[in-house]
Amino acid sequence: MSIDVRQSVTIGRPAAELYERWRDLPRLPELMQHLESVTVLDERRSHWVAKGPADTKVEWEATIVEDVPGEVISWRSVEGSEIPNEGRVEFNRAPADQGTELRVHLKYDPPAGVLGKTVARLFGEEPSQQIRQDLKRFKQLVEAGEIATIEGQPSGPERYTREAS
Q1: Interior angle at CA 87, CA 83 and CA 93, nearest 5
Q2: Among 32, 88, 125, 129, fewest CB within 10 Å belongs to which?
Q3: What are the sequence ranges of the domains in the chain?
Q4: pLDDT digit string (tens) for the chain, length 165 residues
Q5: Nearest to residue 4, comparing CAs of 119, 88, 67, 102?
Q6: Does the domain formed by 3-164 have CATH 2.60.40.10?
Q7: At a CB cut-off of 8 Å and minimum separation 6, what does 47 contact?
Q8: CA 27 to centroid of chain Cα atoms
Q9: Per-residue DSSP letters for the chain?
């Protein structure tokens, strides 16, 4: 059973800049939390390692099948990959010149089929959720230069409790 994910986000930057950032495959793990590494093998092929549910890892090789700078990147896993997959990222001018609408379409066959999809949801690794979060991270990074986080900050009630002591 294939999983089909479609997500989009509007980013206040030109398409050419976003394309260049996305096309820098070894840096994609900085943007996408579920990726551990992407190793470029040649001009079109790359090796991917991703985090799966319950601390598992999955790996595959992919080939870029369409590459139009500033417009689109699409890929397909090579035959025999652990996770057969294909995807496409489109970079379109947003209405009223408000930046770029980035559209991601990802399709893959999860390991263990339906069971794998169910287990992934139980561990918070549902694919559309991951892609939505990754696109938010990408937007924050390219628009603000950093990814907003509350890590290391005290929560409201705890802070007030400590201060009152």
Answers
A1: 160
A2: 129
A3: 3-164
A4: 678 889 999 999 999 999 999 999 999 998 888 889 999 999 999 999 987 766 778 889 999 999 999 999 999 999 988 788 899 999 999 988 889 999 999 898 776 655 455 445 544 456 777 888 888 888 988 888 766 665 666 665 555 445 554
A5: 88
A6: no
A7: 37, 38, 39, 41, 59, 60, 61
A8: 11
A9: --EEEEEEEEESS-HHHHHHHHH-GGGHHHH-TTEEEEEE-SSSEEEEEEE-GGG-EEEEEEEEEEEETTTEEEEEEPTT-SS-EEEEEEEEEPGGG-SEEEEEEEEE--TTHHHHHHHHHHTT--HHHHHHHHHHHHHHHHHHSS----TTPPPHHHHHHHHH-
Could you tell me the two tokens for 1? Answer: 């059973």
The residue assigned the tokens 């609408």 is 101
For tokens 């980035």, name the residue: 102
Residue 20, both tokens: 């260049």
Where do we find the tokens 């090796």? 47
